[in-house]
C-alpha cells in the first residue's frame, strides 16, 4: 500500500481547526502538530499512488489556511 508523509505549513492560529478537518479525511492515518519549520506532519495511505495524489491535491491543499505542503512518498 503506497504511503506518504506530508509536511504542512498553515496560517498562524488556525492549527487546531485545520488539524481537526484533516483528521476526518479518508486516507489520513495519522496527523500531528509539530514544532519547527513545519506545523504538521501527516501519514497518508492509499490503495494506489493516484489515491494519495487526490488526497493531497484535492482535499488537503484546498483547506483554507493551508499555506504549503511537502510530500515524501515512501518506496515499497
Query: Can you tell me the CATH architecture?
Result: 2-Layer Sandwich
Strand content range:
35-45%
**Which structural class should the secondary elements be placed in?**
alpha+beta
CA(first)-CA(last) distance: 8 Å
Number of helices: 2
Uncertain stretches:
none
What does this entry look like structurally?
The protein has 76 residues and is α+β, with helices and mostly antiparallel strands. The chain has one domain (3-73): Alpha-Beta Plaits (2-Layer Sandwich). Helix content is 28%, strand content 37%. The chain has two helices and four strands; from the N terminus they run E-H-E-E-H-E. The chain has helices at residues 15-23, 49-60; strands at 3-10, 28-33, 40-45, 66-73. Strands 2-3-1-4 form a four-stranded antiparallel beta sheet, with helices on one face. A hairpin with a 6-residue loop joins strand 2 and strand 3. It is globular and about 35 Å long. The chain starts with a strand and ends with a strand. The model has no long low-confidence stretch (mean pLDDT 95).
Summarize the structure.
With 76 residues, the chain is of the alpha+beta class.
Topology diagram in text:
Elements: E1 3-10, H1 15-23, E2 28-33, E3 40-45, H2 49-60, E4 66-73
Antiparallel strand pairs: 1-3, 1-4, 2-3
Brief descriptors of the model:
2 helices, alpha+beta, 4-stranded antiparallel sheet, Alpha-Beta Plaits
Amino acid at each position: 500500500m503506497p504511503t506518504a508523509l506530508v509536511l504542512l505549513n498553515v496560517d498562524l492560529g488556525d492549527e487546531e481547526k485545520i488539524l481537526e478537518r484533516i483528521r476526518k479525511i479518508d486516507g489520513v492515518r495519522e496527523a500531528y502538530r509539530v514544532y519547527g519549520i513545519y506545523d504538521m506532519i501527516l501519514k497518508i495511505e492509499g490503495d494506489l499512488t493516484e489515491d494519495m495524489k487526490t488526497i493531497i491535491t484535492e482535499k488537503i491543499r484546498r483547506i483554507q489556511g493551508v499555506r504549503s505542503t511537502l510530500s515524501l512518498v515512501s518506496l515499497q
